[in-house]
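Each field is set out underneath.
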Amino acid sequence: MKTNKAILSLLCLFLLFDSGCAYFNAFYLAKRNFRDGEFERGKNEGISNQTSNKNYREAVKWAREVIAEYPDSKYVDDSMYIISLSQYYQKNYTMARSQLDELLRTFPESEYREEAKYYKALSYIGLEQYENAILVLDDLIKTDDSDMKSQAGLAYAEIAELNERWDGLLEAAETVLGMKPGRNEFIKACIYKGEALYNLERYEECVEVLEPLEDFGKMDIDSKVNYTIRLAQSQAQLESYDKALSLLSVLESKGEFMPYHDELSLEKGFIYELQGDDELAAETYTLMAADYPDSVAADDAWYRVGVITLKDLSLANDARQSFEKVGQQPPNVTAPYYVDAKQKIANIDSLNAHLSRIKEYEGDIEKITKTRFSLGGLYMFMFDRPDSAAGQYQTILRDAPGTEFAIMSDFYIRRFSAMEDGQIDEATERAVAEEIITEYPSSDFAVTLRNYIGVTDNTPHVIALQKAEDARNSGASWEEYLPLYQEVADNYPESRSAYQARLNLAYYYEHDAGDSEKSVEIYRELADETPSFISEMYVETARDKIRYLEEEPALLEEIRTYIADFDMRREESPNETQAADNIAVAVIDSPEKGLTGFQRIRARNARIRSRYYSD
């Protein structure tokens, strides 16, 4: 039979101009190019490269010729399948899915039906349309083909892994293993299960699942690297550091794993960190980054060097240099350390700025205190160094006792003292808050803490302000509630409520009482004050208002100029200006997209005119 088929193929090649064999020749070329593409991709660990993509493009060209020129031939569904997979392996997922849909619609009984559904699901995964992929897999999992059921189960696992749903990944992997899959599917399912157990911090179980794979013999290189790394990481988490390092060293010693040496070195550095040997970890990372300077692993290594160096805040600038070497995030790489490196650079710059300002403000206790408190927050929340933060807060208690900054510093010092293993529970934090409220009942920070723990604030100035707010919200006239706001400002002049009341007075005199002169007077008085911790927000708001009032005449004059220009142009070129009016109608409430030059100016002028004037 094989001999007869070979003879038939040769005859067809010699009879290219015969209509009966011409379509077979086109299909033969499509199939041969697809096979060559698969061979090249296989040599590259299953990843398409330039050579394989060229083969796939040729396969698509010839397969399309079969479909277009010989639509009644028996190779049309074969050609559709070749096109679909060729597009899929080139990562043209939308085109692949579309062609697979066409295959399933046109040939519902095709021998490729199940495979088409499977690759349709994979195409949806490639497009990150996971819900659509699951709908296809739900149908596919019902097949009687055990191999296809296993493949569908592994696709479920891939979706769970991509979404970091570790419980779902564990369930999917165990489901596949329960199907008694083939050898390759069994290995992949075990690796998925190990990944899930590792991320669920069930390290002993992860070792139990992955360790037997060491005796499984030959497997693809990618799978071998993945399971070995996860096994080594689990051993390290269980403090079996020598065994973990040995697993990685075995791979490094084999030439076939040379393309993975940067990743293996990176993993060794992680293990040294877990072991507590930061010096050896940093040295490992630095050497690897020097050997593979353009790799993603090198970026990760420089990030880790920065993190290790930053443990000593006196070396913050050295750490900054390491973070700068992380560089820009490459396309299609989602690793979080690229963003975190930039954040850490910003934090270090902020740290240096705070320290410089403290020296610059020498003798100005108010500015120094404010800067120290901000620096304490930076230490606490950006660098995770509550000990350094506590040092700043202690200095504030000593140098600026009785201030709001001192009260807040006292809270954070007590909170830090109550922490165990870097954590604090809700009950302990509430107890610390209640202590501060009891000791500083009239402080502004006590108000904040009362709101935080849900305690009603009965401070007199708060009650007085609420009375004024209630009067206005009840619908009373401004003659009734403005005096109530004034009482708060007069009776509690240093409280936050007083500053809030003054700002409200200015606003309501302008908008409710219609007394702009009185409103401006209040805004100016507030704007002229030196900002303090309590008043800063209100003073800055008043200053913004005064700046706006001062700039308003110039703004109005500019508007008048625009309108005058528009009117002049209208008189000079009525037809052209009417065209500009027509354009402007379409963009009255949106940017002048697509307009340039004089059209843009006229559209803007017409829009201004429509807002401020009506015919």
